[in-house]
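Problem: given the chain below (176 residues), write out its structure.
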Amino acid sequence: MQELAEWDTFYVILGGAAGALIGLQFVVITLIANRPTRGAADAQGAFSSPTIVHFSAALLLSLLVRVPWHAMAPMAAAWGITGALGVAYVAFVARRMRRQGAYRPELEDWTFFVALPALAYAALIAAALLAVVHPRAGMFASGGGALVLLFAGIHNTWDSVTYLVFVHLRNRPPGG
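Solution.
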């Protein structure tokens, strides 16, 4: 399908970046694993796990575009399912963020961990609906959603690392 061929390079770059960033996130978690904090498990579920999920969703979207579809409808259905599951997951993340006690989320956290991912997953639902009648618009909606997930994940990884290095580790007593 011509619509997919035009997006090939975009999704190859996006998928490669998402895959590499998933690996980097695992390295960061491994490096800080020997310095657990009180409430770390709850905070990880609220802040680290969603980042991996969003990077994985961007990777999945890149892979879906590479499948040799013969029609737009099956890919659109996959986008819609991914979007619906993503919206549900973001609601779960919001609940986890409110319940964890290791860190008090600020507006920036709510924006990058909840609002932007919810918008990205909603864009995938819109892409699914658009793609069948207007494939080009569907591709732009899907690409935009995937890009928002990638950039929110980059922000969230950076935010988590800088918090751990500059706030948490600095406030630890020596040898503790």
